[in-house]
Amino acid sequence: MNLLLKANFSRLWKDGAFWASLAVMAGVGLFEVAVGVSARRQGISVPLENRYFVLALMPGIVLSAFCSLFVGGEYSGGTIRNKITVGHTRDAVYLASLCTCIAAGGLACLAYIVPMVVLGIPLLGIFQMELGAVVWFTLCVFVMTGSLCAVFTLIAILNQNRAVTAIICITLAYFLLFLGIYLNSRLTELEIIPAREYIENGQILLREAEKNPAYVSGLKRTVYQALYCLPGCQAVQLVAEAENCPWSLPLISALCAIGSTAAGLALFRRKDLK
Amino acid sequence: MRNLLCAGLRRLVKSRTFLFALLAVLAYTALVVLVCWDHCAQGAGNYTLEAILTSGFGLMGYLSVPSLIYAALLSVHLGADYSDGALRNKLTVGRTREQVYLADLLTCVIASVGLDVLYLLLSGALCAYPVLEARGVLLRASPGQVLAWVAAALLARAAWAAAVKLTVTVLGSRTAGAVAALLMVVGAMILCQFSFSQIQFLSNCLGDGLPVKNGAARLAFWQLLMDLLPTGQSLQVSMLYTPTLWRLPLLSAAVFAVSTGAGLLFFRRRDLK
Prior knowledge:
- The complex is a heterodimer of chains A (about 270) and B (about 270).
- With about 270 residues, chain A is mostly helical.
- Chain A has eleven helices and four strands, in the order H-H-H-H-H-H-H-H-E-E-E-E-H-H-H.
- Chain A is globular and about 85 Å long.
- Chain A starts with a helix and ends with a helix.
- Chain B has about 270 residues and is mostly helical.
- In chain B, helix 4 runs antiparallel to helix 8.
- Chain B is globular and about 60 Å long.
- The interface of A and B includes residues 69, 164, 166 and 170 of A.
């Protein structure tokens, strides 16, 4: 497998999609710093972590494109058959591709973090949040990125059509992200709308506390909470609860990664590579 | 060129990609209709039919779902011409490059506008009665205003199809075209969301008389950007917020003309190998 990894990494350094992914992540990092600086000039205080947390939203979209192009290239270039012909096992081929994608995902995250820290600290000041919480958030993002890479690798290696793979992966990434936004808005609804005063026809009236009809409860809430922990949706949860990320999130991500890798290995062993 | 157009449309309609796109549009329509029925039954929400119809161009003010579906459809359809070698065949039998480009472009416009019209008809037919029963009124805006919104959004869709055609022509590959078209959609959505937040911030500041450096010029810039991008136009229509509706068709026509002109220029010189 060492040889496969070496070959994959040497292909990775020459891959245009990889460098484009790094450039996009670094570009978004710089853009976020610029947004923070612009807001500060307008007199709005923007802590560095406010811009840093956007990191969680990016890997899904960027890596969906990268993984489908990189892994899909093995089929269109015919290299996957060559690897098997020279005696490498299918498991080794799969795991080598997965490791390469995870490494690329980690580097993509670093491409966001480096300009954010190098430029963000001098321009926006240091993190106002505890450093431990920032490190924990970053770790959670890295684990989620690995989990997303595992899912995208599974899709890409089981589908020989690179264009279809790209469409499925990118659409899935968007879907999970927007599902996360929707679930966040539903799960943060208050159960009781507090009593409030309002003015009507010049008179101050009091509206008593009432039950919120939009509050999600019962089995529906349990299902929503379970979906909210999925790797793509988790990105929104990580941003929303960045100051105190639940320990369960990286655990769920790791389980998803293990599950999708096991499924991928089982299916790839039986796949007709034509 | 009529033959080329007929052949393109026939190939598109028979393709599996079109079937998936059609199913995706139907699923999206079903989602909007079911949510509308649920809201009408519970008495939640306070919108009328124009909000349902314009949801075909964007959801919740920032999600341009149909654009994502059409991006996949158009890029795979157009890219197949390169991967299957159909493009060379067309030129070999004597068609000019302009004819081939324009026939493909018209196919894309007809497909995407046709799917939009399908959404409008289905959602309008299925939601009219529940909305009328629940709210007591079908439309709060005038029918002319609703027609103007729909027309502007359909023109924006045509301009957007021209931009996708240009992208696939420049990249010359099905996979690269699909990735670029999908990323273009999400990039445009994020940019429009940012532009809209800037417009709101600057409008509030200028409305309250707060000092903002070059406030009016910056507001005009962000509004122009929203108006210029087809996705921005679609999202404005979906929010029923179009402060400069009169110029949207003009800008769509400009985007369409520039994309087509640039695409034709590029395609004339392209080495098809």
